[in-house]
Every structure is written in structure tokens, then in C-alpha cells.
Write a structure and sequence with these properties.
The complex is a heterodimer of chains A (145) and B (78). Chain A is of the alpha+beta class. Chain A has helices spanning 12-21, 59-75, 105-122; strands spanning 2-6, 31-38, 48-55, 79-85, 87-89, 94-102, 125-131, 134-137. A four-stranded mixed beta sheet of chain A has the order 1-4-6-2, with helices on both faces. In chain A, strands 5-3-7-8 form a four-stranded antiparallel beta sheet, with no helix packed on it. Chain A is elongated and about 50 Å long. Classes of the chains: A alpha+beta (145), B alpha+beta (78).
């Protein structure tokens, strides 16, 4: 299991491959589920030109670790990878990556979704969007279900 | 007793500070501390989230000496 908050841009698919290369789950893993959240250039009302992501150092990592640990137990996962950007983010850069590995697809799909929804609703990150009409804090996340 | 406070995101900007150390009466609730802050700073702020030692707590949670209190708006990561 790996949880990481990162200021530098990352390529989610390269990160998955790099992480997978270090795992020893070949033969046991039958399913991989991946969610990648990427920076858009629009929201409901504005054109977005960039974004800054703030977090609560210590608490953010603590809660991501707890969510991932609970998911491993609940869904009998073989492994979990979570990466999340903070700081200045440009259009089209990856913001978040959640990958889960399990024996069967049911657990991989369900756990990836569950981790992502918990992250969106409870882990302390805050987005401030740069728009054509000024910088604005995002006041809530859109529902995922 | 003394507790430390951390503010984040729009609340941090509104207050103009990221952290503070305050002296308060023993056994005060986290909500009482919040009410004291918004009165002292003369601000309005809806939907504040409250944490103590990096765990979410209810407003009636009672503080202990040395606690780290977090106040911030609803989270918007992912």
C-alpha cells in the first residue's frame, strides 16, 4: 500500500506501471481498478485557467491511510495506491490517482469507488480555482453517486 | 489551558492567519472556542468543520490542554 501527497506533476499511468513493477501479486491478482481525476478547463459557470490545492499536512495523510487500510480489510485487496497533488496545478494535469488490486473485479471496482468517494467527502483538501473572473474557492464537491 | 489552532483554505484567508495559540478556560468545548474566535475576529463563516488532533469531532467535544484544533470549510479534494 502506498499513499502519497505530491507537489510535482505526475503521469498516473506511468505511476501505476512503476508501482506494479514493485509488487509481487502476479498470479494472485485478477482485477485492477483505476480512477484518475484530471484538471478540467471549465466548471459549471466559468472557464478555469488553473488551480491551487491546499491540504492539512499530517491529517490528510492520516485519513488517506485509514481509508486505504479499511478498504484493504473490507474488500480483501491485494494492494492500494493513492496519489494526490497539492500546490499549483495546470490544466490537463492529473490531480488524483486511486488504484486497487484484487482477485476479482467486484472487490476492485467497489473499493476504488469507495476510496474515491470517501476521499472527496472527508479528506482535508481544498481547491481554489483560477477563473477568467478571478480566483475562487470551490465550496463543495459534486455528488459522485 | 493552552491549545493550538490551525485554519485552512477560505477561512485562513478570511482570518489572515494560518495558526494561533490561545489560552482558554479548562474543559471548554470546541464549539465554544469557535464562537469565541468568530466574535473576536468579527467574522461570519458557515459550515465550519471542526477537528481535534486531526480527527473530526462534534461541536460539544471538550478540549484538553495541548490539543491541536482545526477549523476549515467543507473539503473539496479529488
Amino acid at each position: 500500500m502506498r499513499i502519497e501527497i505530491r507537489e510535482q506533476p505526475f503521469n498516473a499511468y506511468a505511476e501505476i506501471q512503476r508501482y506494479l513493477d514493485g509488487l509481487t501479486i502476479a498470479g494472485k491478482c485478477g482485477a485492477t481498478a483505476v480512477f484518475v481525476g484530471t484538471m478540467r478547463d471549465f466548471n459549471e459557470t466559468n472557464i478555469i485557467t488553473g488551480m491551487t490545492l491546499e491540504h492539512y499536512p499530517g491529517m490528510t495523510e492520516k485519513h488517506l491511510n485509514a481509508i486505504a487500510g479499511e478498504a484493504v480489510t473490507k474488500w480483501q485487496l491485494l494492494d492500494v495506491l493513492i496519489l494526490h497533488r497539492v500546490g499549483k496545478i495546470e490544466i490537463a494535469e492529473d490531480i488524483v490517482l486511486v488504484a486497487t488490486w484484487s482477485a476479482h473485479r467486484k472487490e476492485a471496482f467497489a473499493s476504488c469507488r469507495d476510496i474515491m468517494e470517501q476521499l472527496k467527502s472527508s479528506v482535508p483538501f481544498w481547491k481554489k480555482e483560477d477563473t477568467t473572473s478571478g480566483a475562487k474557492w470551490v465550496d463543495k464537491n459534486t455528488p459522485g453517486y | 489551558m493552552q491549545v493550538s489552532i490551525k485554519y485552512f483554505a477560505s477561512l485562513r484567508e478570511l482570518l489572515g492567519e494560518a495558526s494561533a495559540i490561545v489560552d482558554i478556560e479548562d474543559n471548554v468545548t470546541v464549539n465554544a472556542l469557535w464562537l469565541l474566535i468568530i466574535k473576536r475576529k468579527n467574522i461570519e463563516f458557515d459550515n465550519v468543520m471542526m477537528t481535534v488532533n486531526m480527527e473530526y469531532v462534534k461541536p460539544e467535544h471538550r478540549l484538553k490542554p495541548g490539543d491541536e484544533v482545526g477549523f476549515f470549510p467543507p473539503v473539496t479534494g479529488g
